[in-house]
Amino acid sequence: MKRHLLPLCTLALWACMPLSASAQQTAADFFDSGISKSKTGDFTGALQAFSMAITMNPENAPSYYNRGVAKANLKDHRGAILDYDRAIELNSKDALAYLSRGISKSKQDDHRAALLDFSRAIELNPDDPQAYYNRGASRSRIEQFRGALSDFDKAIELEPSNVQTYYARGITKQKLDDFSGSLADFTKVIEMNPKRGQAFAGRGLSKVELKDFAGAVTDLNKAIELSPEDGESFFYRGYAKSKLDDYKSALGDYDRAIALKGDNYQAYYGRGFCRSKLGDQKGAVQDFNQAIEINNVNTESKVVYSGRITRATLDNLRNVVQERNKINELGTERAEAYFSRAVSKSKQGDPKAAIIDLNKSIELNPTYAEAYFTRGMIKSAQGDQKGAIMDCNSAIKLNPRYAEAFYVRGIIKHSLGDENGGCLDLSKAGELGYNPAYKVISDYCN
């Protein structure tokens, strides 16, 4: 959401704390480089710069804060939270750090924890409308609608020109069944931004609830004109038309609502009702059957790959990783030879023989991180994900900066249902410089 992007231009004013004359200059250079990169949208480059600043001066709160902002802009909210934690540990009076941590927590659907951060941000800076807005949004998510309404009121008092807050307040009033009150907020949004289809949709829904069906159709016409893929607007317009006895036109709206969202059982019911009114009893019965079937479906199922990363997706994401097969001086124990032969056998489609060679390589050199990692990759491709995780664990223990191992372990954990653990590993991979991790984070960790 747009309000969640923090104004990085203000952050350059924060000075680095001194460590020593030479270290301060070096850390300051990296810090300033990170700020410059952030301003240009190069958040990957900014992250690396702030990491270097932290290496030079690990007690500097702004470096952790700004690295957290860079991670958040890369949608790595779990990683961002860890940096905000450290920034707050070093400076517990920084309202922005609490606000930013709350935003990242809310992005992870941890709204109760986010509330605590937003409340602390408000204590430290009671005139920040963004903190009230975000606290209101989190309160809405956990159905504390009256508290949310109070926060949105305060945010509007402090910033009367913010369109998003009026819209959020209108939605909150709907949740409290104050449909009449919501009309004014949606109308204000439309006055300030006539191209916002959501506001017309929201006002149209309130008019449906207030039984102003003709007015609802007018608003929903505009909502659909601005957002042609909004299935809910088609559904409610169909409902309003059916209330006006325009069953033929309503039928077309229900058709479109179902095409956009095939499991909308209410749309099947509405279409069945219209078909019945138009004399198509066979079609009506089919729609009523479908409505009942969808509404009663049991979605519980036991699967091994229980995360959003399926087995097929896991294979695609893992297979882009290249094993570290570099020419090494052949040691007396010949571990490198077994390793290289294993890589060749794997590429020839003989994974069993490859694993035998990797086992021998590890037996000869138990500190061979690349051999563990490569064996883990092959195990994962063969479906032994738990064995693959154990090999990645070993590789990371031997080389704590093995970015690809964190990446592969992360996507495997996620595929097995450990979304939090998987996304934290992906965050670490990105922090260590393996940039493809951020695409996976963006797609699967938010």
From TrEMBL:
Residues 1-23 form the signal peptide. One of its GO terms (cellular component) is cell outer membrane. Pfam families: TPR_1 (PF00515), TPR_11 (PF13414), TPR_16 (PF13432), TPR_17 (PF13431), TPR_8 (PF13181). Keywords: Repeat, Signal, TPR repeat. Gene3D superfamilies: Tetratricopeptide repeat domain. TPR repeats lie at residues 27-60, 61-94, 95-128, 129-162, 163-196, 197-230, 231-264, 265-298, 335-368, 369-402. The keyword Ribosomal protein does not apply. SMART domains: TPR. GO terms for biological process: receptor-mediated virion attachment to host cell. This is Uncharacterized protein. It comes from Spirosoma montaniterrae. The lineage of its organism: Bacteria, Pseudomonadati, Bacteroidota, Cytophagia, Cytophagales.
